[in-house]
Amino acid sequence: MALIIPESLDKSNKRQSVRVDLSAKDPVRFAADGQKAVIENISESGIAFKVEQQIVGNEVAGILKFKIDQVYTIRMKLEILLQKEDSYRARFIDLNRQNSKLMSRLVLGLQKLHIRRRKQQRLLQMEKMMDEAADKKKS
Question: Dihedral sign, CA of 56, 60, 66, 71?
């Protein structure tokens, strides 16, 4: 018997892809319109990022570089969907099949990496609490 989880009962969310928030620790780099960008989040179909200089126009060239099992570089076109100050939300335009699969692998890999980091942080917190409790017991 298979477990079926509905996508969403709330139809107000029009997203079709899962987003993953990124930090500077993550093995992903991005440039938009020839300038380095700070990635806020990424999905299989789009990206949210910040840049220092304003982007002009609705379409922009982007370069995404990341490491899964090796280093990959994807050159792409983006459609800017939303701009708020120095932050942009964009969707990938015309990714070929191979690059779409790479994006899926990237998002899944980032999710796994973030889960491992959270587990490791919880383990370190537990060890610290146990050490503190042992120190109190000795006193």
Answer: negative
Instruction: Fold for 20-113, please state it.
Output: Thrombin, subunit H (2.40.10)
7, 17, 28: which is closest to 110 by C-alpha? 28
Q: What's residue 15's pLDDT? A: 53
Q: How many CA within 13 A on the CB side of residue 137?
A: 6
The CA radius of gyration of the chain, in Å to the nearest whole number, is: 20
Torsion of CA 12, 107, 114, 24, to 10 degrees: -100
DSSP string for residues in 9-48: S-TT----S--EE--TTSSEEEEETTEEEEEEEE-SSEEE
Domain positions in the chain: 20-113
Q: pLDDT, tens digit, for every residue of 114-126?
A: 898 889 888 888 8
Whether this model's pTM surpasses 0.70? yes
**Could you tell me if 107 and 18 are in contact, meaning their C-beta atoms sit under 8 angstroms apart?**
yes
